[in-house]
Request: fold
Amino acid sequence: MTDKRRTLLIVEDDPALQKQMRWAFDQFETVVANNRDEAIAQLRRHEPAIVTMDLGLPPAPDDVTEGFRLLGEILALAPDTKVVVLTGQHDRENAVRAVGMGAYDFFAKPFEPELLALTLDRALRLYDLQQDNRRLKVQQGSALSGVITRDAGMLKVCRLIEKVASANVTVMLLGESGTGKEVLARGLHELSPRRNERFVAINCAAIPENLLESELFGYEKGAFTGAVKQTLGKIEVAHKGTLFLDEIGDLPMPLQAKLLRFLQERVIERIGGREEIPVDVRIVCATHQDVKGLIQAGRFREDLYYRLAEIVVDIPALRYRDGDAVLLAHAFVQRFAGDHGRGSMSLTDDAVQSIELHRWPGNIRELENAIKRAVIMADGNCISADDIGLDVNPDEELEALNLRVVREEAERRAVVRVIARVNGNVARAAEVLGISRPTLYDLMNRFGIKKETST
Reply:
């Protein structure tokens, strides 16, 4: 394997335990420190993803003052680093205090290396997720900076937006409410040659039918009671720029005919006017409804659909975007913690699990509101599942918590598939899996896999 091993900093003044931990966690590049000063020096030098530390450190190993001082300094210097605190068997009070300060987790001594290894693995995954979040925020000022994703389907949507942005075609964005349709519409505008002109948005479902026509097309002075001056409509205001018609499926049939005429002839008439006014505008529309179903029901014009849907972009719901709910949650925590002066805040492990298990029917909008509320209501700098307040099926939660079973099943399936692909060649299988042959033999024995396995 060419991947560099990740760094684990072990803060422990017992040489025998240092040696045991370095041996037990050889999947990491381990560095050790005997006291607070050495720990800070190693932290600055190696920038470890994970730290394990004893609270009882020299010069007073029987007191936790030095340990808590070190914990505070680590969290201040490297807030993303995950700290696992090791405590005595009957020292739960200090362990809880450490987690309240921002430690990732705690373990009582003596610990089982396998269980601690699982915790370190989860901590590393969370650390990587937060680093991904920073990278995937896309550069500030980028046209798609509002899109945070690492899901293959959503990345494909972003590439499609980038590809069609420069073409002067109408685009229809389809997706459930709260999936980010307006964010993508703005991104499309910013990537287009019209970026220096106006982006004008109107929600067709939010404006009463009797007012919607004047909002879109404008009106002349005296056109109706209350029309005391000439007023430009949204289409005319967006001249040379982009007009975003949100919830186009709610557009009344009479206005559908008028919009179709505009799309065909590129001229409008204000209400009460007789002059044809040419308008150069790009139309981007969106809806959460099944437009083809509306056409069959006679509620949407088929000819208008084909005018609006020169390019159709299907936006996946959040529940179908692998890993994005947690990725977005971390981003929202950082944003709202900064907005409300809460400093450095993070999600606990149970909060992450509850986010992963929730179906998010309201998509990103629901997630954003849940995290904003949690940031405001959380007592400390750690946001728990209770702070987020999601309803999670207890059976699903218990199943998800059994990480050992999940990990072993994933390992078993990987070993079976690779052994089959290399036709039982153990040396080649170990190379493909990135492990040593003795480790592979151990796994095969544990899972009862024979070299001849082919299913």
The first strand starts at residue 7 and ends at 11. The first helix runs from residue 15 to 24. The chain has a mean pLDDT of 87. The CA atoms of residues 133 and 327 lie 6 Å apart.
